[in-house]
Amino acid sequence: xxxxxxxxxxxxxxxxxxxxxxxxxxxxxxxxxxxxxxxxxxxxxxxxxxxxxxxxxxxxxxxxxxxxxxxxxxxxxxxxxxxxxxxxxxxxxxxxxxxxxxxxxxxxxxxxxxxxxxxxxxxxxxxxxxxxxxxxxxxxxxxxxxxxxxxxxxxxxxxxxxxxxxxxxxxxxxxxxxxxxxxxxxxxxxxxxxxxxxxxxxxxxxxxxxxxxxxxxxxxxxxxxxxxxxxxxxxxxxxxxxxxxxxxxxxxxxxxxxxxxxxxxxxxxxxxxxxxxxxxxxxxxxxxxxxxxxxxxxxxxxxxxxxxxxxxxxxxxxxxxxxxxxxxxxxxxxxxxxxxxxxxxxxxxxxxxxxxxxxxxxxxxxxxxxxxxxxxxxxxxxxxxxxxxxxxxxxxxxxxxxxxxxxxxxxxxxxxxxxxxxxxxxxxxxxxxxxxxxxxxxxxxxxxxxxxxxxxxxxxxxxxxxxxxxxxxxxxxxxxxxxxxxxxxxxxxxxxxxx
Length: 499
Description:
Nucleotidyltransferase, domain 5, five-stranded mixed beta sheet
């Protein structure tokens, strides 16, 4: 039946994962990337470095698994979303890729809304134009590097440059395509209307494929460099969040993926192209054929606890901090924490938003402060859940949680009670790379469809149910939390002008 390879081109590294036909991970290897920040707020990488890192980690993973390239039945790809890779007619890289976390393009975002109309843009693409997305990056290059723009013939995303080096095909999956905000979300393909109004030639954009479709095969040249067999088919795969949801089994409505890392991501599969009217949620195509998803992004999730520990309690271990927080009551006797330490993205796309402790009294001690951080992050994540439910998804029945923050039993209990949903852990920990391998296995016909593949390969290893008493307390606390940012927004602006 063979083996399947999942390749993940993230910001920090390339990763190659070998999975057998039963869904078991056999080997994982990675190779690091470097990040370039030539100016404040800029973030770039050299696409040639992605290919070199991918080539090395593929060879290493095959060696660790004790197999040859002849044993690999198919390859799936995933990676960082929204990055801009510009190629000339011969497929040569024209400039360093501008990444998802680059912040130089606010003027271009405003220009997109002006040209298309903000409401119309949201209705077509499912999103507002944000600095992280691909479309404003293209306009920035046109305005600031016209000599580069004049040579552009192909536009790709990071993982799709690696696909090009593997297959010599210009192709992209529909999940990542939607993340460029140049897509017609409902049609699941490029929007001629948006491309026309932004004066981006349609012929620059690659063909798009569902996540379980093959986009090409490994060339002879790529086979020599990677150790794979020439002719090995390469599946479309998906952007990192969509492929990560597949790797967690969050592929049906009502089952939500929650990632509690430095940042926080809430990912919810939708059966149709639902759109949050004000664009406060990201709405993209899913890597699952014929499905879509909502996504909310919180900039300082577990990062809030990291900041709190490093700045206010560096002498304590995280475990000791959490044990102490367990002594504080749910709701922290009215104390609230706003987790906007880096501004915010969902539901408030506001770089000037700030963090705060609000409601301190003489009764409050360190235990209350620590627990307030855990609760405040949980309330911030609930903002995304609330938007998702109000936008038409309905009740969330299960939350599949991952990320470093979920190692805390206390935090899992707080999340389950704040969200009023069952919080579960699963046996898969490799996220997007594993999802890419599953997508490749379905493309090859070894697994019949994504839902069946997830049911067969992904198992629940633990569960946390809401505590009814905590649910009532947190419902009251959350109502207060929802009022804090709107009431403080003008103050945050004033604070930003104080040097």
